[in-house]
Design goal:
Number of domains: 1
Shape: globular
Order of helices and strands: EHEHEHEHHEHHEHHEHEH
CATH class: Alpha Beta
CATH topology: TIM Barrel
CATH superfamily: Aldolase class I
Strand order of the largest sheet: 1-2-3-4-5-6-7-8
Strand content: 5-15%
Bound molecules: phosphoenolpyruvate
Radius of gyration: 17 Å
Largest sheet: 8 strands, parallel, barrel
CATH architecture: Alpha-Beta Barrel
Length: about 250
C-alpha cells in the first residue's frame, strides 16, 4: 500500500489572520486522516509550526535554495526549513520552471539539497499544452524525472513524492481526465520500474491541476494516482478538507 498524500500549495497567498483561520479549520476538518500537508510561503512557516506541531497535519515550503549557506541574497536553505519543522518541500513547480527559469539541472540540485537536509521533496513534472498537442508528454516528463534520477540515483525516490501536474491544467479550471492523468502516472511508474521495480511500486505519485472536491475522488481512485497537489482549492478550508477526505 502506498502512502496517500494531499498537499496544499498556497503559492504567494495568505496573511497571518487568514492562515490561522484556515489551519484551524483544516486540522479540525481532516481529523483522523494521515497524509495531509500544507505548503506555505516562507514567512509563515513559523506560524505553521506553532499551529500544526502535535497535530496530524504536516507542513512544508514551496521552494528552497540548492546551496547550503553563504552569499546568496534572498535565498532560503534546506536547513532553515528544517529549523521551522518542515517535513516537505515542493521542488520544480512549473511556475518555478517557467517564470523563474529553473532548469531540470537546478531542480535536480534542489531535490538533492532537500534530501540531504532530511526533507521530503515533492518533485513536480508536467507538460505544456503545446507539448501535449505535439505528442511529447512522455518525453517531457521523462526528461524531468531522469534529470533527478541521474543526479541522485533511483533509490532517492524511496524518500520522495512525485507530482504530475500538466501545466495546462494548473490554475485554469481545466482538469486532466482521470484516464489522461492515469496514463502519465502509469508511464512514470513504468519508467522508474525499468531502473528499480521496488522503488516504482512505492513512490507516491500525486496529480495536480485544478483538483476540486467534485473531481478528487474519481482522480484518486485511479490505480497509479496516490493523492493530489492542490493549489487554489487549498486556500478554502471546506474544499481542501473535502479533497483530503477523498483520499479514502
Ligand atoms: C498547483 O499550484 O500546484 C496547482 C495544482 O494549482 P491548482 O490546483 O490551482 O490548479
Amino acid at each position: 500500500m502506498r502512502q496517500k498524500i494531499v498537499a496544499g500549495n498556497w503559492k504567494m497567498n495568505g496573511s497571518l489572520a487568514d492562515n490561522e483561520a484556515l489551519l484551524k479549520e483544516v486540522v479540525a476538518g481532516t481529523e483522523g486522516l494521515s497524509g495531509v500537508v500544507c505548503c506555505s510561503p516562507y514567512p509563515y512557516l513559523f506560524q505553521l509550526q506553532g499551529l500544526l506541531e502535535g497535530t496530524h497535519v504536516a507542513w512544508g515550503a514551496q521552494n528552497l535554495s540548492q546551496y547550503e549557506k553563504g552569499a546568496y541574497t534572498g535565498e532560503v536553505s534546506a536547513s532553515m526549513l528544517k529549523d521551522f519543522g518542515c517535513s516537505y518541500v515542493i521542488i520544480g513547480h512549473s511556475e518555478r520552471r517557467t517564470i523563474f527559469g529553473e532548469t531540470s539541472m537546478t531542480v535536480a540540485e534542489k531535490f538533492k539539497a532537500a534530501q540531504e537536509a532530511g526533507l521530503i521533496p515533492i518533485l513536480c513534472v508536467g507538460e505544456t499544452l503545446a507539448e501535449r498537442e505535439a505528442g511529447i508528454t512522455e518525453a517531457v516528463v521523462g526528461e524531468q524525472i531522469d534529470a533527478v534520477i541521474g543526479y541522485s540515483g533511483v533509490e532517492a525516490l524511496n524518500s520522495a513524492v512525485i507530482a504530475y501536474e500538466p501545466v495546462w491544467a494548473i490554475g485554469t479550471g481545466k482538469t486532466a481526465t482521470p484516464e489522461q492523468a492515469q496514463d502519465v502516472h502509469r508511464h512514470l511508474r513504468e519508467r522508474i520500474a525499468l531502473m528499480d521495480s521496488d522503488v516504482a511500486g512505492k513512490v507516491p505519485i500525486l496529480y495536480g491541476g485544478s483538483v476540486k472536491a467534485a473531481n478528487a475522488a474519481e482522480l484518486f481512485g485511479m490505480p497509479d494516482i496516490d493523492g493530489g497537489l492542490i493549489g487554489g482549492a487549498s486556500l478554502v478550508s471546506r474544499d481542501f478538507c473535502d479533497i483530503c477526505r477523498a483520499m479514502g
